Amino acid sequence: MSPITIVEGRRLSLTNLDKVLYPETGTTKGEVLHYCTTTADALLPHLHDRPLSFLRYPDGPDGQRFFTKNVPPGTPTWVQTCEVPHSTSGPTRQVLLQDLPALVWAANLVVELHTPQWTSRAPGLADRLVVDLDPGAPATIVECCTAARWLHERLAADGLEVYAKTSGSKGLHLIAPIEPTPSERTTAYAKRLAAEAARALPDLVVDKMTRSLRPGKVFIDFSQNAAAKTTAVAYTLRARATPTVSTPVTWDEIADCTSPEQLSFLFSEIAPRCERHGELHAPLLDPDRARPLPKAA
Questions:
Q1: Element (DSSP H or E) covering residue 157
Q2: Is the pLDDT at 86 greater than 90, yes or no?
Q3: Which of 130, 195, 210, 225 is geometrically suited to a Cys-Cys bond with 187, CB 3.0 to 4.6 A?
Q4: Residue 194: closest CA among 254, 258, 151
Q5: Three-state DSSP class for 83?
C-alpha cells in the first residue's frame, strides 16, 4: 500500500519511494521528493501562475520519457489549472503549481518542470526574455560562458538586467525581467540579438538551427521566447544520467569557469548554494526590476 502523507492539509499518496531513478548515483524517488520539498521556497515562486509543461520520466532518465502540457489524468481536484489559448486546436487546460502540496504531487509523477515566459494572467505577454546557450560538441558550457559574457554586456547596453543559470543539461540560460511585451516582439528582439552575437563572435556563436553548423560552437536559441515554447524552470531536476539541477549562478562563476564540472550541480548541492548565495534569481520576481525592451525591438 502506498504511504499517505499529509502536506499542508492535503492527502497525498506517494508511490515507489525506494525506486532508484538515477542508477549512477543510486538516487531514489524518495530523495527526489525530499529535494523538491526542501527547495520549495526557492522553486515555487518561479512556478507561480505559470502554466506547467511536464517532461515525465517515471522509470528514470534511461526509461520512457514523454512531454505533455495537458492536465494529467488523475490530477487531484485541488490542484489549480488554467485555460491556455492555443493557435490551432483551441484552448487547453494546464496545471498551475501554486503551493507545496501541488509541488509534491507533481514530484511524485517524476517530472522536469517547464514554463513559458508569460503568466496565466496575461497569456502571450512575456515578462521575461530568455536566451538559451546550447553548446555543440566538442564545445561545452565553458564556451557558453564566453558567449554569455558578451551577451551580458550587450543586454546591459540595452538597459536590461541579466541573470544566469545552468540549464541542468549542457548549457546556460540567460534571463532578463522585462515589462510585459508581446511574445512576437520579444522573439524578434532575441533573434536579432542572436544574429548580432554570431557576427561579433563568428568562431564561437551560431544563430541558425541547422545542426551541421553547430559542432564546436554555441547555438543561441532565441525561439524559447515564442508564446508556445517553454524553458526548464530554475531549480528543476533534469532527466539526465545524474540528478543535475537547473541552477542559478553568479557572473563571477561564469567568468571563472574553465571546466564543465565547475558549473554542473547535483540536487544535493542546491541547499548549501542557497545558504551561501541566497536566491540568486529573486530579482526576477520583483516587478520593479522589469525593464522595457528597446524601442527598436
A1: helix 141-157
A2: no
A3: 225
A4: 151
A5: strand
